Every structure is written in C-alpha cells, then in structure tokens.
Amino acid sequence: METPLLLFPQLNISASKEKSYYKVMKSAIKEEPHKASKPGAKQKRNRLSLLLQKSEFHEGDHLGKPGNLTKAASVSPEEAMKWAESFDKLLSEKAGLDAFTKFLKTEFSEENIEFWIACEDYKKSKTSHELLPKAKSIYETFIQKDAPKEVNLDFQTKEATSQNIEQPIITTFDVAQNRVYRLMEQDSYPRFLRSDPYLNLVKGRNPSRPTLRRRSRSFTVNDFQGVRPDFTIW
C-alpha cells in the first residue's frame, strides 16, 4: 500500500512543472513577435543619421540663391571687371544691368533701377500719342505720393514733374531720372562693387554651385565590440 502513496506526489510535482513550463513558453511566444516588430537601437540611430544627411543635402540646394547673380555667372571675369570702370558702363551692358538689379533686390531698393529703366523706355517713344499713357503710368507707379514703388525724390522735383504729366514731352522725367541715377551711383553702386556676388564673378567663381557638406556616419557602441585598442599611438 505504500507504493501508491509515493506515486501521487510525484505525479503532482511533474504536472505542476509542466504547467509552469507551458505558461512560460506561451508568454515567450506572444512576446517574441512584439519584440521583433520594434527596430533596434542601432537601426534607430542609422535611420536618424540618414534623415539628417537628407535634410542637410536639401538645405544645401538653397545655399547661395538670394542675390547670387546666377544669370550673370556666365560673364567672364574680364567683363565683370569692366563694370567697375563706371556706373554708366555697368548699366550699358545687359548682363551688368541684370546683375545690379538682382543686387538692389537684396537691398529692397529695386524701385530705383526699375524707375530708371522705365524712363529709358519712355524716351524711346516714337509718337506723342505714346507719351501720355506712359507718363501717367510712370508717375502713378514711382512718383506720386504713396505710389506702390515710390522713389526718393525731393519735393521740388516731384512738383515740377507732376505739372508736366498732362502734357508730357520726351524730357518730362529727365530731372527725376537724373536724381535717381546719381543716388544709385553714389550709394548703391559702391556697395555692389564690394558685394560677395560681384567679387565672385571677378574671381571667376560660380556662385550657383554651393559646396555641400557631408555628415559622417553615426557610430554606436556595438560598432566597437571586438575592437582592441592600440596603445602604441600614445
């Protein structure tokens, strides 16, 4: 009768162990796919490094664009150097005029060169019928009070110009145009010659090609596992 009494405890212990082992294995099976779905720390760092590289590359696409005179970049250094001879020489060449216009836009004073160009076009009118609409357009755009592109003119010049608008002639804007010309020649022109975009043209550099920086790859602790230090460098 002693044998059955010894068998029952052994069966109970074995069953409890199997039951516990089953629970552990079941929970491990549930957790394993969950762990596999999450990227490791190394993967996260690599992705972050890649994103930073892409972001920096796209930022480089925009480097040098404002006021970089890209259209004038094909001008030879010799041609660009001639622009420094005189303000009239600069404006007499299309590439020079374009470059100077772009420069004034960076200083938010492009209305001066636009007014000067409008006056040049006005003086090319072939008939008297063309003068009146052009004169009114120039006056309303650049000269009258609170004009959308009002240029900096003294009171007397403005008054003299406004009195001739109803019956304009070829020379109606000559005084005003000359005032703006002198202002640009004495103020904006010297700054243009000292500007980086112009100096780059003179030196033969192409400002439309920005230098892109490369970010080094991010390293993790795992990358250095198994690497033995070399103390000979000390």
Automatic annotation (TrEMBL):
An individual GO BP term: negative regulation of signal transduction
Flavoprotein keyword on record: no
SUPFAM superfamilies associated with the record: Regulator of G-protein signaling, RGS
RGS domain sequence ranges: 86-202
Keywords, in A-Z order: Signal transduction inhibitor
Pfam families reported for this sequence: RGS
Source organism superkingdom: Eukaryota
UniProt keyword Heme, yes or no: no
Protein name, entry field: RGS18 protein
Organism: Upupa epops (Eurasian hoopoe)
